[in-house]
Amino acid sequence: MINHNVFSGYDKFIITVATLFGLLLVLLFQNYDKIPSYKEHVNRNEYNVLPVGKLSHTKGDEYVDDGGVKWLKRAFYRNLFHNPLKYYTFETKANANANRGTSETSILIKGKKGFKDESFNYYSSYNHPVNHFFADILPIAIYFAPKYRVFNK
Question: Exposed, middle or buried: residue 106 (CB in 10 Å: 0-12, 13-18, 19+)?
Fold first, then answer.
């Protein structure tokens, strides 16, 4: 009888791990330029924007603040890393002062007035999750949870 199963379970595991590692290397190679320098990363909140006044609902998940800035309220499942049972997360488009495509995130504490200053993101986790991972999440690990500069506005 001929054994048609050429690979053992261990071989299949090694092939799977090698394939996943190769895919991760390709992803890293294609997105390496999105990783900010340490200085850019710890100073990124310089570009953060908070809503002015109150947010008024316009349509769907869109809101506008008293300064005319448009904000997008993230859906529950797109807010999982920001504790959606406690917080609403709002995101606005690029800040004109930043040097790359950007978005800001601000969090409204449910049941309280005002916004909690969150962090500036080089890429929107809502619209560009892969870019957001490389530009905003991965540097936290690369730079060993750095201390971010606080910019008072």
Answer: buried
Name the E strands within 75-134. 87-92, 103-109, 115-121
At 12, the amino acid letter reads K
Tokens 């949870």 map to which residue?
145
* CB contact at 8 A, 134 and 31: yes
Strands 103-109, 115-121: pairing is: antiparallel
Tens digit of pLDDT at every position of the chain (153 positions): 566 677 788 989 999 999 999 999 999 899 999 999 999 999 988 888 888 888 899 999 999 989 898 888 888 888 887 788 888 888 887 565 555 556 667 777 777 767 777 778 888 877 788 888 999 989 999 998 888 887 765
In DSSP terms, which residues pair with 64 in a beta bridge? 56, 70
Report CA-CA distances (Å) from 7 to 1, 14, 82: 17, 10, 44
Residue 42: which of 136, 134, 132, 129 has the closest Cα? 136
For residues 79 and 87, the answer to whether their CB atoms sit within 8 Å is yes
Give residue for tokens 């080089």: 122
